[in-house]
Automatic annotation (TrEMBL):
Organism: Streptomyces violascens
SUPFAM superfamilies named among the record's database cross-references: Cytochrome P450 (SSF48264)
PANTHER family for this protein: CYTOCHROME P450 YJIB-RELATED, P450, PUTATIVE (EUROFUNG)-RELATED
The protein's name: Cytochrome P450
Short name of one Pfam family: p450
Family, as annotated: Belongs to the cytochrome P450 family.
Length: 395
C-alpha cells in the first residue's frame, strides 16, 4: 500500500466528483493513512463499507474533539455551541443530549409535521410555471429544511435567511476565519434566543424544547449546543439530499420516468438515492484513544480517523455495480445517516422532507430538465458534505 503524498480530499477534481478518488483509495486499501490539509498532519481514512460500519461502532474511536485538541496549538476559534455539541462528544454527555433530541424526530412526530412540510413546499412552488427556469437549490432545497427546523426551534421568520447564510458559511472548507465567525454568529444568536424563551412563559416550540432539556438534565450551554446542532445538521444535509437526488434522477431518465409515472414509489427509492450520492461525504471528526485495528490495519492511539460514507456507499463489496442508480436495489445498508450511537436522529424528518419535495416536483412539473449542461454545475467545496451550489432547472 502506497499512501498518497498530498491530501486527496482537497483536489479540485474531488469536489466535482469524489468517486474516482474514493475508488482508487479503496482499491489500494480500504483503511489507509493520508495527509490532511497542508500542515503536515495525517489521518486514517476509511473508504470500505464493512470497515466503516465497524469504525462507526468502535468505542475506541472518540468524537470528543475537546479531548483531542486539549494542549495542542490551534488558531481556530469556534463557538463552544458548535465545537462541543452532541456530534463532538462521547457518552455519557452524548447520551444525555441524544435522549432529548431523539423524541423530536420519532415517526409519530414527523407524521404530525407532514402537513406543515407540504404547505411549505406548496408555498415555495407557488410562483413556479412550466417552461420557466428555477434554481432548485436556492428556491427549494435550501428554504424547505431551513423553514422546518426554524419552525421547530421557534426562530422568527425575519431571522431565518441570516441563519441559513451563517450555516452555509460554517461548511465553507476554504476559509477558517469565515467558518469561525459564522459559528459565533450562530452560537450568539441561539444563546439569546434560548435566554429570551426561558424568560418568556408559554407553550411555543422552543419553550417545549427547553422543558425537555431541563428534564433531561441539560444545562444552558448544552441546550444552546443542541439547538445549534438541530439547526445546522437539520437543514444543511437535507438541502444536499434533495439536490443530489434530483440531479441523480435527471441523469437517469428511466428512473426519473418511473417515479414520475408512479410517485408512490418515491419513499422506497430514497435509500438508493441516498446511497448513490450521499449528502454526507466524510463523517465528522473522530480520533483513536488507544491502539486498535480496523479491517486488518493497525491504527495507533492519538490519530484522527475519517469515515467516508460517500465512499462506503459505493463499495462494490456491499453494493454490486455501485456506480449505477438502481431503484430495485436493497440499499437499506447505506451509511449516509451514519451508524451506531451517532446515527442521525433527524433521519425520519429528512426523509419526509425529501419525499414530499420530490413527489410535488415530479407531479407538478413532469417535464423538468437541466437548464445547463451537467458538466457546468458547481459543487460546494467541502469534503464533509457533498452538494450543489446551484441546480438550474427548466420546469
Amino acid at each position: 500500500m502506497t499512501a498518497p503524498r498530498q491530501d486527496p480530499l482537497r483536489d479540485p477534481r474531488f469536489f466535482a466528483d469524489p468517486y474516482p478518488t474514493y475508488d482508487r483509495l479503496r482499491e489500494g486499501c480500504p483503511v489507509q493513512r493520508i495527509p490532511t490539509g497542508s500542515g503536515g498532519h495525517q489521518a486514517y481514512l476509511i473508504t470500505g463499507h464493512p470497515e466503516a460500519r465497524e469504525a462507526f461502532t468502535d468505542p475506541r474511536l472518540s468524537k470528543d474533539t475537546a479531548r483531542f485538541f486539549a494542549g495542542r496549538p490551534s488558531n481556530r476559534d469556534l463557538h463552544p455551541a458548535i465545537s462541543r455539541n452532541m456530534l463532538a462528544s462521547d457518552p455519557p454527555a452524548h447520551t444525555r443530549q441524544r435522549r432529548v433530541a431523539t423524541p423530536l424526530f420519532t415517526t409519530r412526530r414527523v407524521r404530525v409535521l407532514r402537513p406543515y412540510i407540504t404547505r411549505v413546499v406548496d408555498d415555495l412552488m407557488t410562483a413556479w410555471r412550466p417552461g420557466t427556469e428555477v434554481d432548485l437549490v436556492a428556491d427549494l432545497a435550501v428554504p424547505l429544511p431551513v423553514t422546518v427546523v426554524c419552525e421547530l426551534l421557534g426562530v422568527p421568520e425575519s431571522d431565518r435567511d441570516a441563519l441559513a447564510g451563517w450555516s452555509h458559511d460554517l461548511f465553507d472548507a476554504t476559509d477558517n476565519g469565515r467558518i469561525d465567525a459564522a459559528s459565533h454568529r450562530i452560537g450568539d444568536y441561539l444563546t439569546q434566543l434560548v435566554d429570551t424563551a426561558r424568560a418568556t412563559p408559554g407553550d411555543g416550540p422552543l419553550q417545549c424544547l427547553l422543558r425537555d432539556c431541563d428534564e433531561g438534565g441539560l444545562g444552558r450551554d448544552q441546550t444552546v449546543s443542541l439547538a445549534a446542532l438541530l439547526l445546522v445538521a437539520g437543514h444543511e444535509t437535507t438541502t444536499h439530499f434533495i439536490g443530489n437526488a434530483v440531479l441523480a434522477l435527471l441523469r437517469h431518465p428511466q428512473a426519473l420516468d418511473r417515479l414520475r409515472r408512479d410517485p408512490d414509489l418515491i419513499p422506497g427509492a430514497l435509500d438508493e438515492l441516498l446511497r448513490y450520492d450521499s449528502p454526507v461525504s466524510v463523517a465528522t471528526f473522530r480520533h483513536s484513544t488507544e491502539d486498535l485495528s480496523i479491517g486488518g490495519v493497525d491504527i495507533p492511539a492519538g490519530f484522527p480517523v475519517l469515515i467516508a460514507p460517500g465512499a462506503a456507499n459505493r463499495d462494490p463489496a456491499a453494493f454490486p455495480a455501485p456506480h449505477r442508480l438502481d431503484l430495485d436495489r436493497d440499499a437499506g445498508g447505506h451509511l449516509s445517516f451514519g451508524h451506531g450511537i451517532h446515527r442521525c436522529p433527524g433521519a425520519p424528518l429528512a426523509r419526509a422532507e425529501a419525499e414530499i419535495a420530490l413527489r410535488t416536483l415530479l407531479t407538478r412539473f413532469p417535464d423538468i430538465r437541466l437548464a445547463i449542461p451537467a458538466e457546468s454545475l458547481t459543487w460546494r467545496r467541502t469534503r464533509l458534505t457533498r452538494g450543489l451550489a446551484t441546480l438550474p432547472l427548466t420546469l
